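As the next step, I wrote out a protein sequence along with its fold in token form, included below for the reader:
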Amino acid sequence: MTGSDDWQALLAAAASDNVSGAHSVTADAASVLVAYSEQASPASRDELLADLRRISCDLLSAQPAMASIANLLNAAWWSVHDDSSLKTLPGAVESHTASAREAVIAVSRAASALLAPESTVMTISASSTVAQALLLAHEEALRPRVVCLESRPMLEGQRFAAMLAENGLPVTLAVDAAAHDCVAQADLLFLGVDSLTPEGVLGKIGIAGLSLAARQAGLPVYALADRTKLWPVALGSPFIRQRPPEEVWPDPPGGVRVSNRYFDVADWANVEGVVSEDGVLTAAEARKEGQAIPVHAELAALYGEVAEELSSAFPEPRDWYLYIISCSDNTLYTGITTDLERRVAQHNAGKGAAYTASRRPVALQAAWLFPNRSAATRAERAMKRRSRPGKLKAIERGDAFKGGPPAQIEPL
């Protein structure tokens, strides 16, 4: 991306990138802000702030757990705090970005210095900071060997392994489930980082179990992170959103729920330290620095709104039920819900559906369990195509329907 491109196109591209590492995504986000400052001509301060809110919301919605994005946006908001123009925005963004670039180099050097000749380094997914540390060690003839986990579902680890191999490093790629076995092959574990939180190191899904296995095996675990990875504690806990389940399984059968979270958190107890631009930080030092970051009030408010919207739009996988209720006129009604008791109560209060509102009271006759709304909806359509005798037969038999097992129900 370059600043000469349309800033709105840059924003769309940055917000849709779910493969690149934190520094790459943040560099693209910085390009958005610089392009905006060069191309936009807001008529008023209110219009400027509205544009900055839109940019912030799009980037935070795409990467709500990435500290470098939050810190970049925080710098942008503080730059316009007392300025009704765009004069200070590009300078603040470019200064923040330049500092981050220099910090990554320093972190890489410090991490490389931890390696003895011919060390085997284990890692997961793809981190530009880990890559620089390994390449630097290779240039200095330390001959490091690498064990890399593939990182499902987007397989960033495969691309990472290919890049290292192209540069002459010996690499072993393993599936994520082999993490415990691979720990025995390594001398230390390097973790790429998205955020340093009060609870631990937030990074690619799998680092929690991997760091625990490494610690139990006596393997030193280091998180490689400059200070842009410190999560601003004043924003609250970073929101780890669910991603599209079809990335894992495009068409799961009935009874299967798919969870697709990109990130989890390695407990500080399993991390030796944070290799930063100023040496190795302890967990206490990292937590203290995150707590000290002053967060702009506008950004704090926006982050709360984004996290709330994401939790509604991308909920944790949950059960959905296909249900059949009998009405007071002896007819049957079919629907879907996540809460049987609440839904039947709504029907009996006249708020469930127009059909049942005039046919109260209703009684739950049968229900079937499904892993998500789409599976429950498909089953609902199939059930509604059945005649009344066909529905009664499904109720009486109590068998699975369209892959959904019968739910154990209590009289409501």
Notes: The chain has three domains: 7-100, 104-296, 320-397. The CA atoms of residues 118 and 149 lie 19 Å apart. Residues 89-112 form the longest helix (24 residues).
